[in-house]
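Q: I have two molecules that I believe assemble together. Could you output structure tokens for the complex as a whole instead of separate predictions?
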Amino acid sequence: MMRRVLIGNIAVSEAVKLANVDVISAYPITPQTIIVEKLAEMVEKGELNAKYIRVDSEHSALAAVYGASASGSRVFTATSSHGLLYMYEMLWWTANSRLPVVMAVVTRSIGPPWNIHTDHQDALTIRDSGWIIGFAENVQEAFDMTIMAYKISEDKRVLLPSIVALDGFILSHTAEPVDLPTTSEIDGFLPPRDPSPFKVEPGTEFAVGNLGPDEVTMELRWLIWRAMYRSKYVIEDVDKGYNKILGRNYSHGLVERYRVEDAKYLIVSMGSWSGDAKDAVDMLRDEGYEVGLARIRYVRPFPSEIIRDISSDVKAVLVIDRAVSMGSGGILYSDILRSIDRRTPVKNVIAGIGGVDVNQDHFKMIIEEFIDEFEKDEYHNWNDTYWFMPWMR
Amino acid sequence: MSLKYVPKDLDEEASEDLKLFRDKLLAKPGKGSAGKTGTWRLYKPVIKIDGCTKCGICWLYCPDDVISWRPREYPDIDYTYCKGCGICASVCPVNTIEMILEGE
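A: Yes, here they are, computed for all two components at once.
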């Protein structure tokens, strides 16, 4: 193991290099571009023995790695925001064909207005497609999750593509110290890909995804559903195995539990701002509030059972979302509502859309108001979603 | 961790699923998987052997692979599966394939 100071994008490139991918195809888009630029450089210098395919669009980028993955290669692509939306059709082809493609999504707001800063709306548009979706909190996690994504996706019990989401600029362009395993450590953890579920090659005669009876479509979806459930176990196992390599004595798995043991109030968040939320939890703990935080690391598969366990003894839950389903509510919020005991009051706050900065003091303000409302018995109004826009107050 | 859904055995379930997945997603070529498609035919392509130059272009173009041909041999049409699309008649360079209305 060694320690280097890396920005999020370079950390992801280093992880892809360690994973020894065979084929990379991508189209540049801010704030993701550095990842694939760095990879192109590694291929050019001969540090990474991979085929780099330049394409005309994100749709073609994912189509190229789809084909490469179908022929047994380990593949990578990366994108953001509008690029992700442009490859939308191929995202579903990839998941429905059960190809273990790994993609980094550097989260960025969707225009208009034209905006390159982070929120989670882009990555969550693919929520229902059958991709495994992990959200990193820091640069180290973006690195770790990228390597683990190959192990998880290629596992025969899973065989689903994975997305590693890292917040644009906050992680992608911010330098942090990162522990990197050595090549030999990773080679033991991540052997070359066994070309499952199928391998397209000369001499084989079959068509992938030909016309079929309606029932076949439903059966194939049901198989993805089952694989998603199995992936919860696989993710927890892979996380433990990976952390052991790096000599860590902890493993967060699907959800990080932060000061939740005796918590009376539970905060739920996801992504890089969870660090600020934890600071707010610490400040509130110092003031005597019994508050804890559950950080969703994998939003698909959604860790419903774990959330139900964590929330079993709390008085109320606050879900802070950085993405919204228009006409419904926060995207995490609906998953949390479905997961916990129906008698537990849940408040939903939307914040940080379009990259609006939300710092520890903002989190403290949001959490204090939530606890205050609950204690004053005002939580009966919590059937609406609140938008945190302090500059408009 | 306590997960609600506990598969009887992760590996066993996964290998059953994988087999099912391959059977359902991957289509292997086979003869007449849509039944005897020759019954769909309205016009029947008939090769007038006299004019045939044994070039094999009809064999190359047949979208359903029902024409058999070897170099320096006459082509032969399998009418059990030929749908009568007429492509062979259209591409024949010497116009020696005639489309005849079925029943005549």
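A: One point stands out. Chain A is about 40% helix and 20% strand.
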